[in-house]
Amino acid sequence: MKIDTDLPRPVREIEHFEIPMPDGTRLAARIWLPEDADDTPVPAILEYIPYRKNDKTLERDHARAPWIAAQGYAYVRLDIRGSGESEGLMTDEYSPVELQDGCDAIAWIADQTWCDGGVGIVGISWGGFNGLQLAALQPPALKAVVTICSTDDRYADDIHYMGGALLCDHLSWASVMFGINTLPPDPVHVGDRWRDMWHQRLDESGLWLDEWLRHQTRDDFWKHGSVCEDIDAIKIPVYAVSGWADGYCRAVFRLVETLQAPAKGIVGPWSHKYPHLGEPGPAIDWLTEETRWWDHWLKGRDTGIMDEDPLRLFLQDHAEPRGHYKQRAGHWITEPAWPSPNVDRRTFGLGTDGRLGGDAHPDDRRDIASPLWVGAHAGKWCSYAKRGDQPGDQRREDAGSLVFETAPLTEDTHIAGDATVTLTFQVDRPVAQVAARLMDVAPDGAATRVSYGILNLTHRDSHETPEALVPGQTYTAEVEMKHVAQTFRAGHRIRLGLSSCYFPIIWPAPEPVTLTLFPARCALTLPVRTGDLTVADRFDPPRAAEPLEVDYHVEPHSGWSVTEDRDTGRVVVESFDHEGAAHITPHDLLHSADVRERYSTLPYDPLSAEAQVVWVHEMSRGDWSIKSVTDTTLTCDRDAFHIAARLRAWEGDTLVRDLEWTRSIPRHLV
């Protein structure tokens, strides 16, 4: 990372500023802007998220926001109502109140003396979501969007469900917000109000997992905030960004394809991170690229960015299977449109003998009843570049799957886009699921997962109105895989793996299932990249402003393990992530957070599945300190999901809250 110490314009920082909403609620902002902005107004960039401007995101913001401000922008980092030092309550993601606050904040920013009236919005994850949602509401001052690691579809392509199957990251993400909602505002900024604001959050923020699990189909709950429901409502330019290891790469392609407004997209090898912090690398000089976008749309400068191809992809080369990568080999390519004229869809039949591209008799059948340890080496649905959260060697998963593979390739084969699997099948239970994995098999046999797809087979025709399967009846369904750009080298094999479970990526079906395939009526379709593979212009190495002064009492660290009880066969997947115990020197504030996740199951009993997530947060300054512990467990029986959750909070050594929830929520074909 190149650190720029000589920025083009001097920047001043307003550490805490309260923006009034029409109902009297005040939202807390941190603002960086050129020192002379009151005399020479500049466009503003808004980042609007719940992750606490004063501690959780400050280290990241401090290296990014001043750099952009020095290019002639006011950078406003705004905490959502009920988070950080903002007043009020936050009781769900992307609520109507949140979106109206966003529109009001944009209008307020545009009206300030230091703003020239034009506003852009940027964000990663939550901030990428609500940036698209606010664009669809068309606040007059909002002129352009940068959306990173986000989606246009909250049901089909978010952290909650995949192919109609319940993602275990649904629990993981709910637990993240359960923990964040226990944190108080900083007394330095809100004074004596901090305790009342804190206690209100502890008592009234709610258990979000309870509400989310009550919506198991694509209903109005998920349609709210899904801009794909009316994509033409977005009339301003959008730059969409993601990475192959991120959970949200598919949305980039849909936005470039469907937006009527000007759109650009970029997908790197990265996990859920800003591209200048991108891991797996190569990270890029994203701040310069982002500024080119803002200069074009907010300042009217001809930066050339709209003369370039609208889609840039990192074409990954082979990598040996690992749970974590610092770097991926490959190179950048561009596409003139999406769908691309450079991509041809090529179909491979499934041979009865296991050959991909082989033959099968119409009456041939192949059965699979996967043990529930298939998925233990799948990593997370959304990688955060933590140790172990990407998929390991797939040979272990293949042992419990149906496998089809090509002969060794005679030449390099490249794909770019979404592979699909067409399956004609029968099942012996009314609820069933299938996982499809696409793999790059090296000459030594090591199998690297390239992409995968999931389908709850009761959702084969509709996510809104799923239908139970009739045992013994024949169906045909299509499984969509995540987009990817990948090279399969000559001498390697392409492998397809199919399993009837994929825990803990998805929660198991309520009964053991035998899935019967008719290979003659099944196929894998690959998006083969046949066009020009000329290496696109490389990005410069990443750069940022001077880092925040932070002293880590405990350095960030993480880990991941898979263990098996050789007596019972129970498989346990455990991970931990300590964000670090960081002393933020300018604020004299110590902030610490760590999480432990545990997923376990017996190999042939889906009702034995258990998941637990525990977060511990601590904050202190001088004699003031708080601590919170949130503990959420999810189990099930044949008919319902069961939640047991507990929240404990301390002020100093005094336990001020000990709250518990127990909920049972009927399963609806999940």
UniProtKB/TrEMBL annotation:
InterPro entries membership: AB_hydrolase_fold, CocE/Ser_esterase, Galactose-bd-like_sf, Xaa-Pro-like_dom, Xaa-Pro_dipept_C, Xaa-Pro_dipeptidyl-ppase/CocE
Keywords, comma-separated and alphabetical: Hydrolase
One Pfam family linked to the record: PepX_C
Domain (Xaa-Pro dipeptidyl-peptidase C-terminal) ranges: 291-548
Molecular function via GO: dipeptidyl-peptidase activity
Protein known as: CocE/NonD family hydrolase
Species the sequence originates in: Pelagovum pacificum
